[in-house]
Amino acid sequence: MKLSNLSLKNIKKSVKDYAIYFFTLILGISIFYVFNAIDSQTVMLDVTSNTKEIIKLMTNMLSGVSVFVSFILGFLIIYASRFLIKRRNKEFGIYLTLGMSKRKISTILFFETLFIGIISLIVGLFLGVVLSQFMSLIVANMFDANMTKFTFVFSSSACLKTIIYFAIMYLFVMIFNTINISKCKLIDLLYSSKKSETIKMKNPYLCLIVFIISSISLAYAYYFVTGGFANLDTADKIFKPIIIGCVSTFFIFWSLSGLILKMVMSIKKLYYKGLNSFILRQISSKINTTVFSMTIICLMLFITICVLSASLTLKNSMQANVNKLAPADIQITKLVTRDENDTNNYSKEELKNLKLGVIDTLNLFDFNINDYFKDSVEIDIFATPNLTLNHTLGTMLDEVREKYKFLQYDTKEDIMTISDYNKVAKIYGNKELSLNDDEYLIVADFKSMVDVRNIALKNAEKITLFGYNLKPKYPECQDGFIEMSSQHINTGMIIVPDHIVDDDYKTYNMLIANYNTSSKEKRLKMEEDIMEYLNKANKQGIGVLSSNTKIDILEASTGLGALVTFIGLYLGIIFMISSTAILALKELSESSDNKDRFKMLRRIGTDEKLLNKALFRQIAIFFMFPLVIAIIHSIFGIIFSVKVLEVFGNEQLLPSIVMTAIFLIIIYGGYFLITYFCSKSIIKEKF
Amino acid sequence: MEKILKVASIEKYYGNKSSLTKAIDNISFEVDKGEFVAIMGSSGSGKTTLLNLISTIDRVTSGHIYVGEMDITKLKGNDLNKFRREELGFIFQDFNLLDTLTASENIALALSIQNVGAKEIEKLIKEVATKLDIQTILNKYPYQLSGGQKQRVASARAIITNPKLILADEPTGALDSKSAKMLLERFNYLNEQTKATILMVTHDAFTASYASRVIFIKDGKIFNEIHKGNASRKEFFDKIIDVVTLLGGDLNEIV
């Protein structure tokens, strides 16, 4: 009998015992493949070149994330295999007493890892290839692309990448196993199972004090990221609540493990009902030693929930925003002034051309506006070094500076006349505004900047512009925007009466228009034509023209949405399966340790139903404990991420939380059920 | 007579400076080739620790143990593995069979570790199976066997390599009296027919009465030693009981 034979036999047994480990490996491999195969899956999609660019960016980012994912999976695999080896101490002890060398035992483990690796890779890749066919459908749907025809796609590059990444992970497992084996002592291997864990009852008063302290510090961390959000002006300050949160989570688990037992024990009626005393002792005997891993699992679940719901929200609200924030078809902007840093000597002709508006520029190239647009407006935007954020904030500058240190206070403000603004508002379908001769108002929709500006507006800060004194009409910013975008990014446009502006300070001329056709193909064709005109103009140095179209914005936003969703899903699923797999493995090994205890219960005549119920409860409590705390964390985590991502809007929070919950229930619940049924078969009496 | 085992004033301490336990307190004895020695003592007397030290499962704090000419307390790494592989046979109270392997595969494992050829292995298994009367159960898995059968399979594994010394830790501890008797008769047979040297740890006077010499241990020291000589097993058993009575403690309750 060869050593490899021995390994094979061991695996045959392991497949049954460690179904969860295999299941997780296979799941990890297939997910890894699916997300790395996305570019091949999208090759046959009928999409514009812009979307192709975005997909390319997405696949690049996903492959970057894959490195991170492989680290997480690597740690999971090493942890799990170490855990499984620990359970086989006795077996290795026997090998050693028979005179097998440690090197040979390592060789056996090497073969085992090799076999497991090959089997899981084959099955995982197969599953991955199947799943990625569905992924094509999702991708096509997301990018609103026509699937010209369904083709079966196999990505050999993704396949190779998966094999290489996992081969490296397995290699590390082998190294760790060898180190582990070489360190262990024979007597510990043979008799480790006989060592019983000493059950230390924690001092309940100490537990209570620790619990109260950690609850308070947790509440402080929660407040820090929600109520006290405004104080988080620099990125490094976020570490404080994170560290406080992690540490207090640990101590909450630590103290609760002692408290719950004490509490239930004092309620005699509950404690002595059915197998409650048994269940409780089981849990508390283990939770003492698993506080640390519970904390890790809880935090990983917390990250999963936040990442999933935040990324789904982001995607949903971005799509909802586009229609509102990009109401016109096209927007062409021309810089009509010399850049401050531009020191080139221009000819008179050139300077004249530079000052031309968008339509006049295009007319030079025989562009006929009526061929393309059914309605259009042309507006001017002004800026002057005499009006920067410093000036607009006026006397409130110091107060604002105190609070928002990161703002660029010497940025020139954008200025527009009221009649121009109303032209834009009309074509966008926004509310038109009016202004008296000595008044100004600010239009903005970027939440943080609105907050900043409102401080000054509330204080009725006056501004001086082109020799006129203006006072604010409203004590707060008006909602609105000039530039089309998929997000609320208007940091502020100063709207002033028509008569005060000085044409010398024109910086931009802008054309906003709607196409005279609704057919998608024709629109695309028109856009191509217009781009050509713009390129011609740019090439001949008549000025810098740039365009911003609804189609582009839509594509970019779906692309960005897809990107965020895929990365969120990828990370979320990997985090989720990693943490749940650890929990499931722990519970399963627990069950095989408990085999004798259940046998004993059976012998004293415990009903089978009662036993199963006890098992169910024990596992359920172990699964629920970290989840409940993770959910509480997540409530605040989501509130925080909503604040951070407010630029994207948060209109769609509920559906994404529902989606996250569904994911959580499927994966977490699935693992829970597998654990329960496997445990049930472990404690079942075999005749 | 050739000395197989020489234990020279060994000591084993457990614990730390503040609470030191002397599990073995200066024990010395010798075992001749072909002897069947039982070590008796109540639980906590240090008998299993003694066996663990001889079997290289544990390490001595001080003193020396010689098997043949070799000082096994000095062995390390591959020499230690070679020693376990070629000179020692282990029999444990809880059998320590691998439940993924059949009985014959379990026995073969001891040989395949020594790189013995497949044909030779089959031949040797057949031989040893006859000696231990386990021919009919060779293809069964451990969970299909009774305790007595399992222990005989474990014994077969221990002796198939023809070791200098067979070490048995409470071999009858998990067996009923009939299986225990059958196993011990096999030990006698091995001891007499194949001149195997056996060192057995037990707390059971009946089990010990099959040996040719019994060493009594109390509190980590040798308390007494009696030889069977030409006495019958029954007479030797009575002699053992006398010492046990003298030793007092919980041994009485078990007998």
SSE inventory with pairings:
The complex is a heterodimer of chains A (687) and B (255).
Chain A: H1 3-17, H2 19-36, H3 38-42, E1 45-46, H4 49-86, H5 89-97, H6 102-142, E2 146-147, H7 156-183, H8 186-191, H9 204-225, H10 239-266, H11 268-271, H12 276-325, E3 330-335, H13 348-355, H14 358-363, H15 369-372, E4 373-382, H16 389-393, H17 397-403, E5 414-417, H18 418-428, E6 439-443, H19 447-458, E7 463-465, E8 468-472, E9 493-496, E10 506-515, H20 520-539, E11 545-549, H21 550-603, H22 608-644, H23 653-683
Helix pairs in contact in A: 1-6, 2-4, 2-6, 2-7, 2-21, 4-7, 4-21, 6-7, 9-10, 10-12, 12-21, 12-22, 12-23, 21-22, 21-23, 22-23
Chain B: E1 3-15, E2 20-32, E3 36-40, H1 47-54, E4 62-67, E5 70-71, H2 77-87, E6 88-91, H3 103-112, H4 118-132, H5 147-159, E7 165-169, H6 177-193, E8 197-202, H7 205-208, E9 213-218, E10 221-227, H8 233-247, H9 251-254
Parallel strand pairs in B: 3-8, 3-9, 6-7, 7-8
Antiparallel strand pairs in B: 1-2, 1-4, 4-5, 9-10
Helix pairs in contact in B: 3-4, 3-5, 4-5, 5-6
